[in-house]
Amino acid sequence: MNTDKLNYINVGLMFLAYLLAQAMPVELLVFSYAVVGPLHYLTEIPWLHKRNYFAAPRNEAWLLWLLAALSVVPALMSICTMTAVGFALCLVLFQQRWRRLAILALLLPLVLLLNSQKDVAVLFGLYLTTIVHVFIFTWLFVFSGCLKDKRISGFIALVTLTLLAVSFFVNPAPATHYVSSAQFVDNAIVGFGNLQKRLCAMVGWTFDWNGYVAITRFIAFAYTYHYLNWFSKTKVIRWHELRPAALVTVCLIYMASLTIYAINYKAGNQLLLLLSIGHVFLEFPLNWKTAGLIMKELRSITAKNCTLNPSLEV
User: Cα(296)–Cα(290) distance, rounded to whole angstroms?
Assistant: First the structure.
């Protein structure tokens, strides 16, 4: 599959996620997170492992797993996330173990200081592992592909993703005629209630049924497209090329997760929390590399424009 075809497929997936999110936001969010989410974690983690978590050598990458395990304790969530973000940057920038560990030791006091600031703690403890991961980082991946490939199809995908996301916040449709079962609403609140309430407050919406549905539409869209985007890139990511033993392990864990979610959604959230947070933390080095790629491409474009237009040079 060539790049243009993949970009246009992703445009189609964006519209699919958008239409489903508008029509059945609560149901889509619950389904995507419980059914598609675990398969995403289970296929991305082996893919990251095979590529040394984009932090060669990967000797200290296990610390990201340790931080993920500690972060399941709510009081430690923001501290662990901040530490993981900083340490992931160390994994990308430095090859020597002593430098990585030394900077990690210096990082901890700064993390504790930042964690005392409520807004910073909420950013890292709530937003970064949820909406920032599934939407902002996904947007940056699309943007980096657009800059790297320099294809019209990539630009169309980027603009489409941006406009669809913005549309959720421009005159959101009232939820007067939308009805969801109490079970679906309860399940959505179990996993995302605090996020929805805070996002509503951030954009100035009342957290009533209209506000709840409006913000859930955006969250459902973001999560669903994030997962669909991953599974669309079989030729690029090659996540499907798992070894037979790994494939069997993934299938068994996935079937077990579906069974647990079907029996008790809250228990499924709790038991899959480590995998959910773990795949976010393990992706941080890739996020840093993507940010670096974007900066490199933007500098290249700026330098080229200055060469073509000497009057732009300062």
Answer: 10
Tell me, yes or no, if the pTM score tops 0.85: yes
**Helices assigned H by DSSP within 24-171:** 25-31, 37-50, 62-71, 77-93, 97-115, 118-122, 137-149, 152-167
Q: CA 155, CA 160: separation in Å to the nearest integer? A: 8
For residues 314 and 311, give the distance between their C-alpha atoms in angstroms, rounded to a whole number: 8
- Cα atoms found within 13 Å of the Cα of residue 211, Cβ hemisphere only: 15
- pLDDT of 243 reads 78
Cα 140 from Cα 285, distance rounded (Å): 14
Q: Residue 293 has which token pair?
A: 């790629």
Domain layout of the chain by residue ranges: 3-301
How many Å apart are CA 225 and CA 245, to the nearest integer? 29
DSSP state of 32: I
Q: Residue 229: which of 3, 65, 2, 11 has the closest Cα?
A: 11
Assign 3-state DSSP to the chain and report helix, strand, coil percentages, each to 5: 85, 0, 15
